[in-house]
Amino acid sequence: MREARIVAVGTGSLGALLIARPEAVARACSGAPNAVPRAWIVRLLGARMLLQALVEAARPQRRILDGGIATDAAHGASMVALAAASRRYRRPAAISAAAAGVSAILGLTCRAAK
Description:
Strand content: under 5%
Largest sheet: none
Number of domains: 1
Number of strands: 0
């Protein structure tokens, strides 16, 4: 339980950053002025991450963690597809896919520790 809450704090913090500073995060991840994702998309991702973290911190049960793992895996897969399909958004999509992959792996690790 403790490990899942620690991971949730990290995920929630990242989500809060995406909500609070979407333009800055998007610019930092894009690498090119014409490849900056729209602020509302970054905020939406941040809100999803923050909500997921709050649920996982409040109820770090196996089925809740499984839902978070599945959500992160689906997001990661969609970002891999975007990176493959869009040269313009390849870098931000790859960064988002990597973050989702790390989150899913950490979720699996926490689940195994239960």
